[in-house]
Amino acid sequence: MIVLKFGGASVVTPQSFHRVAKIVQKRKEAGEPVVVVVSAMANATDELLELAQEVHPNPPRREQDMLVSVGERISISLLAMALDRLGVEAVSFTGSQSGIITNEDHSEAKIIDVRPHRLSATLKAGAVAIVAGFQGVSRAGEITTLGRGGSDTSAVALAAALDAPCVDFYKDVEGIYDRDPKQGTAQLLPQLEYTQAKEIAKGGAKVLHLRSIELAEKNGIQLAVRSFHRPETIGTLVGPRRTSFSGRVYE
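Above: the chain's sequence. Below: its structure in token form.
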């Protein structure tokens, strides 16, 4: 079982979905059941938030969640289409359809449970399960979003629920660096412990969201950061994975 996470930078254009689909196809052909978590296309969430502001300077948070959750739904359906074109069976799911249960805090919801029954059935049938990151459903049945970086958290929470030992994050960088590579010379860090990765995230690095690292540590899940330009290589591994953990924690 493997969980793959693709951020907005990897789905910038409609053509980008074909590149992502080929990466997923290769992982599927390796014989692993594959769950793919996808973010909204680059800038899509910001554009939707700007649209909301044009209509209402302080939009109701419930309605804002309803609006911005559309971005990931576009991504999952387009990726399913791209995979179908390659002959790979895939089924797309919203956060609620995936069984991601949250509290009622709109726009900053916390995951309280994951019930991935439909995903498990899809994987058992041999298909790829594609999940909309960043979103879930409250116990009252309301659509919620998880805040910035929520798609990373979605991926790790699903890995915990499905007993996947690792989440592979495909980014527009080679891995995690000791400093911002855009600001000068930076050293790629091939391996980090959870504590080290959390400190880097707290320092402002945006490669992995802090909540996702914390969740991975609680559940003993290894994180691998790969460049979608060079998907065959692993830039940074975050771990190590615990072997004595029992039970699942979502936040």
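The longest helix spans residues 70-85.
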